Amino acid sequence: MGIHGNGGRRHWQPLLLSGLAFFAGLMTSLFLKIETCKEVLRERSVEVEDPILCLKSQIEPDLKSLPSDFFTFHNKCREATPLAKVRSMLLDEIFDGVSPFEGFPSPHVAPFLRKESIKGWGSRAKVFDELLKEVRPQLIVELGTFLGASAIHMANLSQSMGLQTLILCIDDFRGWPGFRYTFKDIHQEHGQAMLYYQFLQNVITTNFTHAIIPVPFSTTSAMAKLCDVGIQADLIEVDAGHDFHSAWADINRAWALLRPGVGIMFGHDYYLRADNRGVGRAVNLFARLKGLHIQPHGSHWILRRPRPSARRSPVISDPEHVRSEKRKKRWQETSS
Ligand SMILES: C[S@@+](CC[C@H](N)C(=O)[O-])C[C@H]1O[C@@H](n2cnc3c(N)ncnc32)[C@H](O)[C@@H]1O
Ligand SMILES: *[C@@H]1O[C@H](CO)[C@@H](O)[C@H](O)[C@H]1NC(C)=O
Ligand SMILES: *[C@@H]1O[C@H](CO)[C@@H](O)[C@H](O)[C@H]1NC(C)=O
Q1: Is the beta carbon of 206 within 6 A of some atom in ligand 3?
Q2: In this structure, which residue's CA is closest to atom 11 in ligand 2?
Q3: For the CA of 153, the nearest atom of ligand 2
Q4: Does a structural domain hold residue 9?
Q5: How confident is the model at residue 326 (pLDDT cuts 50, 70, 90)?
């Protein structure tokens, strides 16, 4: 019996030891991987608290070999239009000079609207309150408005802070194909859902028509227009298309609308798994190219425009940046 027992122990002891050694090796390599990953992100000034998320958020294409079209966006905006003129200028440019709230609702849509139907996603998160208090914005641009939940919340916050903030709501007000499976109460006629009309109704019901101006177009064409007419926002909220390409284009175009020196851009769904983590990957890539620090906040992300003196050099070569650095150098050489 004793001999048997000893023989058995002799048999499984080395097995157990090598098993333990293997497990320890595995854990060590995972630990090292996570540490390296965190280090890389730290260098890019990206804070990631969740270590597994860190491993997943790596982007490794060779960006230097991509054509500059990928990084070059319409960003030569007209000089800022004075705030006092923004409302009437936009009404003229977009609505033939007549407020979209005037005479609303007309008889053919009135029967299909609810007095109030406001459903959003994280639309009253703490980040809105904090950023409005920090920035005290005079002009906010929102990309992605839907029924107006976040815009109305921001209008309410700014009112309670004694501000007279103007909020431009960019949305094509079409939601997405099939959104009415979840929003059956939004009436549809000839295939056109009344999302825009219900949004207008919500703004009227909550008494914020003085603060909110809809810009009912695609984010691309709306932002090109705002850039051309000299709109400069103190705060921009990005919450429209959540796939990489939409988010990437929105973030890049919106950046050009931010008031120099002070603006903050933030957006929803930084950690969203849907659309192959499109939002997170677009935000990370943008921050990496611009050498910006990403501040995650709940499910939101925040990017602050660096003050000119505190500007960090981009982590990797952004073709646009390299060219402008070369231009700057040439200019310095010729002017000295
Ligand atoms: C998630 S919802 C916005 C929610 C809103 N921020 C809230 O908190 O209540 C996204 C919106 O983006 C709009 N959208 C998506 N892609 C767009 C595009 N390319 N141009 C304009 N609007 C777009 C949709 O119509 C939809 O209303
Ligand atoms: C506005 O804020 C007040 C105070 O927090 C709140 O009671 C009210 O419901 C809000 N109104 C809207 C329309 O969000
Ligand atoms: C909006 O204004 C009307 C008229 O002044 C008032 O009766 C109503 O209570 C207000 N609604 C809200 C949500 O503040």
Answers
A1: yes
A2: 156
A3: 14
A4: yes
A5: low
Q: Summarize the confidence of residues 258-284 as an average pLDDT.
A: 94
Amino acid at 86: V
Predicted local distance difference test score (pLDDT) of residue 210: 98
What's the 134 CA to ligand 3 centre distance in angstroms?
28
| Better pLDDT: 39 or 114 | 114
The number of the ligand nearest the C-alpha atom of 155 reads 2
Structural domain boundaries enclosing 20: 2-63
Which tokens is 124 given?
Answer: 């009253």
Please name the residue that has the structure tokens 């298309």. 241
Q: For ligand 2, atom 3, which residue shows the shortest CA distance?
A: 156
Ligand 3 pocket test, candidate residues 160, 207, 209, 212, most atoms within 8 A of CB = 207
pLDDT of residue 289: 83
**Is 268 a domain residue?**
yes
Q: What per-residue confidence (pLDDT) applies to 334?
A: 42
Per the domain annotation, does 329 fall within a domain?
Answer: no
DSSP string, 7-62: HHHHHHHHHHHHHHHHHHHHHHHHHHHHHHHHHHHHHTTB----HHHHHHT-----
Evaluated on CA atoms 112, 113, 115, 116, the torsion sign reads positive
Q: Distance between CA 4 and CA 163 in Å, rounded?
A: 85
CB of 13 closer than 6 A to ligand 3?
no
Q: Kindly state whether residues 126 and 263 are assigned to the same domain.
A: yes
| Tokens 């120099």 -> residue | 260
Q: Is the CB of 156 under 6 A from ligand 2?
A: yes
Residue nearest to atom 14 of ligand 2 (CA): 153
Residue 258 belongs to a domain with what CATH number? 3.40.50.150
Please write the tens of the pLDDT for every residue from 126-150: 999 999 999 999 999 999 999 999 9
- Whose atoms come closest to the Cα of 240: which ligand? 1
Q: For the segment 290-305, what is each residue's pLDDT rounded down to a tens digit?
A: 889 999 999 999 999 8
pLDDT at position 316 over 70: no
For residue 32, name the pLDDT band (cuts at 50, 70, 90): confident
